[in-house]
Specification:
13 strands, about 475 residues, 4-stranded antiparallel sheet, Trigger factor, domain 2, about 20% strand, alpha+beta, elongated
Amino acid sequence: MKVTQEKLPASQIGLEIEINPETTKKTYEKVIQNLSKTANIPGFRKGKVPRPILLQRLGTLRVKATALEEIIQDGIQEAVKQVEISPIGQPQLRTSFDDLISTYEPGKPLTFSAAVDVEPEVTLAQYSGLTFQAEEVKYDAERVDKALEENRREMATLIPVEGRAAQLGDVAIVDFKGVVLPEGEGEPEPIEGGEASDFQIDLQEDRFIPGFIIGIVGMNPGETKEVSAQFPDPYANEELAGKPAQFTITLKELKEKELPELNDDFAQEASEYKTLAELQGSLEEKFKKEAEDKTKTNKKEALLKALVEQLTVDLPDTMVQQEVDAILMQTATRLSQQGLDVRQLFTKDIIGQLRSRSRGEAIDRIKRSLVLREVATKESIKLTQEEVTPKVQELMEQYKGQDVHPDKLIEAVENEMLTERIFDWLLQHSTVELLPEGSLAKDKVEEIEEIEEIGEVEGEEEG
């Protein structure tokens, strides 16, 4: 068999394959023998059908097509081995199958073309000495006080209130019934699930829908009141999003929170620590680490973007489609874990739309993976078994009794540890300018607004 190869766009290798006459004849004869053994033709036993009758009943075209399919399949597999390439996904026939049928004659050579996707060639213009910007998340000492205050509220004792009206911070026990108000003429419609008795609610402005809590403030126990509210847009229930509503609310009881004192007794009840100072120190350490982790995540994200800008690669479509499959699988798993019926959600049309929308994300994910892998290769960044084993053993003990596949766990640990090591190397060999939190996001918004303004001006000039 003669094979000629050429490079094609999108990381494909084109193969021109010439099948020798002996193979085209041998395959054709083998197909006829197999069909003779299986063909059910009246008046003849299987395997005893004369060749002319078999060809007449089955049709020469069908026999040639069957033989041709086998020749092409075997030919591509043998060609891939012969030129020593590692294909991704299934090979594609480039020559028209109909044209091949018309030209195929058993006992004569047959030439056809195919293409296979292969691992793309990666070129990084630069990966060391990069300069980029990232947002710095600084530790906020007030978070400790807020966390302690939240714990105090959770541990508060509810004391009945007498002689005053409801105010923010109280806990109210109410009966309520809501209706959606019509935009024009028409009758108000009851809100499905918008009715409750002896409902306990904290009187905080961020609870419930806008207008509901403020409507209760100022009411006295035993009072009934009509309260106007507005469903936010967007809203979980799309049918209610942005619509005005009215609630009939009866305030039945009113209580206020008596907060525990901030002392060592509080710390012992709220945590595993014996003193308030220890609890405060633990919270401070936790929030400092969170700030450091978020800053490092911002650095990694900015670094990856800078690296991808240095990347030149022609991605094969098979690789992109495989990554799209992975994204959809992750989405389906997440929705299933939320209790949703994925089979009903993922209709044929929806899957098509999701595949189209996920393509950009898939390409970005592949490029990020490729640049990290290329850096690891160029700088010989590796892990030893001695480094991986303790982490795997720790996780195996943690997940003891759960259905965890050891090989997959090892692979996940290796990927995570290697990725972290690559990032550490890159950050050590790069320069990062840390900016205040939110500044880059602000710059992005201003850039979008500037583009929109330019578009509006151009539109006016054209008009």
